[in-house]
Design brief:
heterodimer, A: mainly beta, 7-stranded mixed beta sheet, 4-stranded antiparallel beta sheet, globular, B: 6-stranded mixed beta sheet, 11 strands, 0% helix, 60% strand
């Protein structure tokens, strides 16, 4: 199994508070991703990173920011959490992306269940 | 953007039965992956298969890129196959997931 951890695994917070989720990998993969999973929507890409300090928006980026200061860590921040951000958040990694090749295979972390009251 | 449709949305099988899951996508893609999410929420990559056929034990997958679909075959299903199966494609650098097929295998 790919070495991907997420912290915290569960969090309950109140509307308006800031929240930071952490993804840590030990595989030295270049690409890292944050997804959210909601009933009826499958997984949707929030942000991704293609290197240290290199990030880009995904499908549902509003209300979220990310940072990657080290290869192994990718942080997702909700500046002011809202109830609509209650979800399960998954981090994923891959060696490559965009072009063809098995290096694009994505490996997922265990997920973080976030509840915003 | 690229649309990904999976069918059927739900499937119930008796243990030992075979099944075929389908993934249609609306545009040319560089990559296609199949994932299994088990009942505990863990996502496991089953296949990286932008074209052609691959097999791994009781599971196999075929992608016909020119016709924009992929099939996942499960043979001799087991209760541990239960969960949700997702197809995901890459439109450029962004991965788009289908809504999934929820499979329940009865003992």
């Amino acid at each position: 199994d790919a070495g991907i951890t997420q912290s915290p695994r569960h969090k309950v917070t109140e509307t308006g508070t800031p929240v930071t989720l952490r993804c840590h990998q030990t595989e030295n993969h270049r690409y890292m991703y944050w997804y959210r999973q909601d009933p009826g929507h499958g997984l949707r890409l929030i942000h991704y990173s293609y290197g240290v300090k290199d990030t880009d928006k995904g499908e549902v980026s509003d209300g979220y920011s990310v940072s990657r200061s080290k290869t192994e860590d990718f942080l997702l921040t909700l500046e002011s959490a809202t109830s609509s951000q209650t979800s399960v958040y998954f981090c994923a990694i891959s060696e490559s992306s965009g072009t063809s090749g098995s290096g694009n295979t994505q490996y997922f972390g265990p997920g973080t269940r976030l509840t915003v009251l | 953007g690229i649309q990904v449709e999976q069918s059927p949305p739900d499937l119930i099988l008796q243990e030992g039965a075979n099944s075929t899951l389908r993934c249609n996508f609306s545009d040319s893609v560089n990559n296609l992956q199949w994932f299994h999410q088990n009942p505990w929420g863990q996502l496991i990559n089953l296949f990286y298969i932008p074209s052609g056929t691959k097999q791994n034990g009781r599971l196999s997958a075929t992608t016909v890129a020119t016709e924009r679909y992929s099939l996942l075959y499960i043979s001799s299903s087991q209760t541990t196959d239960s969960g949700v199966y997702f197809c995901a494609v890459d439109g450029g650098f962004k991965t788009i997931f289908g809504a999934g097929t929820r499979l329940f295998v009865k003992a």
